[in-house]
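Hi C.,

You asked whether I'd gotten around to modeling the 216-residue construct. I have! Everything is below, sequence then structure, no commentary in between.
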Amino acid sequence: MTAQDSQGLTPQMLLAGYAQGIFPMATSRGESRLHWFEPQWRGVIPLQNFHMSRSLARRMRRGNITFRMNDDFAGVVQHCADRDETWINAPLFDLYRALFALGHAHSLEVWEGDALAGGLFGISLGGAFFGESMFSRRTDGSKMALVCLVDRLKQAGFTLCDTQYLTPHLASLGGVEISRAAYRKQLAAALRVQADFTALPVAPAQLVVQRMTQTS
């Protein structure tokens, strides 16, 4: 772990860091510095091995669920940071918004009727997607967002879904840990792929479930 003053840190420097396998975090909301991390064991979601439970599939089929992409990026990041302890400080928030303006940062939102149920955001580079954070405001909100993400990455030709660290929540959905060396190999291959996160329209929830249940 190395620390860097966030002043002078540009979106291009951030992308260069991701391309090297490192990512920035703050230790608290009020901190002005950012720390670069490269875990010995990296969390990833193998896109062909994503596990969606039958109960989640039923909820998505029967509920009034719709997905939106990049509709409220800043709002999604704010929801992800709106917790007692967060690694998203103000400078990092600004950098994410700058990456969004450049077309490298994206959000996926889950709506249940007129209510925001959950969402996630991350960074795309080549055929790699670096998941940053997700949130739930209703039951299974973040799980549904992750289902939508994996479906989108598969349809758009991405080969790597990086979750940084593996949590029990991600492990229950098929996430695994791989070594730093294995991650670097997968990252190098993904960066050679040309993929476009926004090339396809957002699919209806029932179509997403249909595709995901056929391949999971």
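If it helps when you're writing up: The chain has a mean pLDDT of 91.

Thanks,
B.
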